[in-house]
């Protein structure tokens, strides 16, 4: 016998929304949310990646956050690079940076000709590995820092020294705006240009190694020895070995003084300067004249003027310099007044890495 159901249960239930209706409502809601977020422009995305070399996801994030404003996206990327770089720098600051490059810059490298080279700069930028030192981004930064230092000659501290090449305080260099390209028009800098320190931090974020500026020096005509006459001209030459034209493992600056010449020094003196810069790198002199040597030291090979001229046929550097002066005319005097030779990482104690132990520690195993 069947039981009768209560009347309340026999009443029709309220009609539930159909699945298709629910889905359409969800699509309308989410599409409204998506409409407020800018879609990255494909053209701007390609341009941003080409100019900055950032990953695709980072380029998209920059454009989305700036509503496809290209200049704002560039600024966003700079801030993001500096923030991530500063965070990474804090993690790696205790690591030894014993590798790196020496960078040089001068007027000659900027197309003014050998006779117009009155200034020069040299820097050492360090990193942890030779692999990173060969990275184009690292090489470019070293060149840019050297170019920046070229314009900081007026910041060289006053000294009683008779030298022309002066070391710059690193805090002044690091706070200076980084020149984007070798240029003789510092007024043309973009106002968004970052400082040397900010650029180093950004590169740390990209390459993941401890990177630091170790030293910087510049030829300062304003601080040149005052004992010479008004017609004196300083000629600066540079050379790097083991790298590009402006960066390498070893670099040098050589400063020549030319006085009494009726006309410009010409290509002869320019060639002499370049060859002497190579000589300083290859023959590692420590002094210009014997009189510069400390008492008790008798290493003649350490005196530049006593060395055999590497591009000559047996004559010394001193004899070659005197010969060039004679070729320029009566009463002309050519002198080597200063030089420096820097080698990347020299004097830095390199830590012996236990790579096997490091791998085992990373794997959570103790080395027996």
Which key features would you list for this structure?
single chain, 368 residues, Tetrahydropterin Synthase, Chain A, five-stranded antiparallel sheet, three-stranded antiparallel sheet, 12 helices, 8 strands, elongated
Overview of this protein structure:
By secondary structure, this protein is an alpha+beta fold. It has a domain at 99-290 and 299-343: Tetrahydropterin Synthase, Chain A (2-Layer Sandwich), CATH 3.30.479. The protein has helices spanning 7-10, 19-34, 42-52, 56-65, 70-92, 130-133, 136-150, 170-174, 196-207, 266-283, 317-328, 355-362, and strands spanning 99-106, 120-127, 165-167, 212-219, 233-241, 247-248, 250-259, 333-343. Strands 3-4-2-1-6 form a five-stranded antiparallel beta sheet. A three-stranded antiparallel beta sheet has the order 5-7-8.
